[in-house]
Design a protein that fits this description.
By secondary structure, the chain is of the alpha+beta class. The protein has helices at 56-59, 109-120, 126-136, 139-147, 161-176, 185-194, 199-202, 213-218, 220-239, 245-257, 273-297; strands at residues 14-28, 34-42, 45-52, 67-77, 80-91, 203-204, 210-211. The protein has two domains: 6-99, OB fold (Dihydrolipoamide Acetyltransferase, E2P); 102-290, Hypothetical protein af1432. The chain is built from eleven helices and seven strands. The strands form two sheets. A five-stranded mixed β-barrel has the order 1-2-3-5-4. A hairpin with a 5-residue loop joins β6 and β7 (210-211). α6 crosses α10 (245-257). The longest helix is centred in the last third of the chain and has 25 residues, at 273-297.
Length: 332
């Protein structure tokens, strides 16, 4: 029997399927009765599930990252689909096909890597080019960089998401740089490549997306600066000359300031043209991707998507015109 992916589920449908648990909570309703709420996912998306009259025993019978066989019914609630589960039971991970559960980039990873190498190895600045070579010669880093998501829940939250995000930014930077001759193009491009570099050690993505101990304690900004420091020392050995102090400071400043404000986690505000350019370009790509994905994944008939807490709004999809009917009366 063919698998029923999350994206294929419909209101009123009975299901008996295996999903990956990305979050679980034991809650109480208004009467004080306990119920289980879990976030289920596969490679096509996520859906919330509830089982009423659940207790501690069921809650402790599985963990985040486990696979659950869920029997129940899909229903529409406040504009979004959810599952009302009758039974939930843990499944042996050896009995499932892992590729069914983690979302992947739709792009060809080998072509994305080829584009990344092409842009970085054409840098004119010999120190920045040597720094890029040190990263690209590190097979373990390249493997991780090609797989890690750009985020756990928000933008580009899928295998290969960070690589896809960075290559899109490099293409955009390549087009923008000629319009702003006061920008140091090589520094701008290298800042785009390095801004989220620490995520290869911050995030985990074997069964579900989460954070490593290092990621929780330090975060990808600090990790990224550490990685650049280490590779800059290697680059000095490659070129036979010391990596310029100010150039290294400017690179590390881009990493530390690219979230843009203290409120969003930047210990420093952008203070160079290249830093502010990387911040806005990164934010543009992340926000646009989130809008497009939210609209694309919503299968409802409403002209609006359900409320998205991370975006703090609903998105307008537009009204679908009847087949063959014009959108305006201009021709009448």
């Amino acid at each position: 029997m063919a698998r029923r992916f999350v994206q294929e589920l419909a209101d009123g449908e009975a299901i008996d399927e295996v999903y990956l648990v990305s979050d679980k909570q034991l809650r109480a309703n208004r009467n004080g009765n306990l119920y289980l709420q879990v976030e289920l996912r596969d490679r096509t998306g996520c859906i919330s599930a509830r089982q009423w009259n659940a207790g501690e025993h069921l809650f402790r019978s599985f963990e985040e990252g486990d696979f659950l066989r869920v029997k129940g019914k899909v229903q529409l609630f406040q504009g979004a689909l959810q599952v009302i589960a009758n039974t939930i039971e843990r499944v042996d991970p050896h009995q499932v096909e892992l590729t069914d559960f983690l979302p992947h980039t739709e792009n060809d990873v080998s072509k994305l890597l080829e584009r990344l190498r092409s842009v970085l190895l054409k840098l004119d600045n010999p120190h920045l080019r040597a720094l890029a070579e040190c990263f690209l010669m590190d097979d373990e880093f390249v493997r991780d960089f090609a797989r890690v998501p750009a985020g756990v829940r928000n933008h580009h939250a899928y295998i290969g998401g960070l690589l896809e995000h960075v290559v899109h930014l490099l293409d955009a930077a390549d087009r923008l740089a000629p319009l702003y001759p006061d920008l140091d193009r090589d520094l701008f491009v290298m800042g785009v490549f390095l801004h989220d570099i620490g995520k290869v050690r911050e995030l985990t993505y074997t069964r579900t997306f989460g954070y490593s101990d290092e990621g929780q304690l330090l975060g990808h900004l600090v990790i990224g600066v550490e990685m650049v420091d280490a590779k800059a020392r290697q680059a000095s050995q490659l070129t036979g000359s010391a990596f310029p102090t100010e150039l290294l400071l400017r690179l590390k400043h881009i990493i530390l300031s690219h979230h843009g404000t203290h409120e969003f986690g930047s210990p420093r505000l952008p203070m160079t043209p290249e830093a502010i350019a990387v911040h806005y370009l990164d934010n543009f790509d992340a926000k646009l991707h989130a809008f497009v994905l939210d609209i694309k994944e919503d299968g409802g008939d409403s002209a609006w998507t359900p409320y998205n807490p991370s975006l703090d709004r609903r998105l307008f999809k537009g009204n679908k015109a009847a087949p063959g009917k014009a959108d305006s009366d201009e021709d009448e």
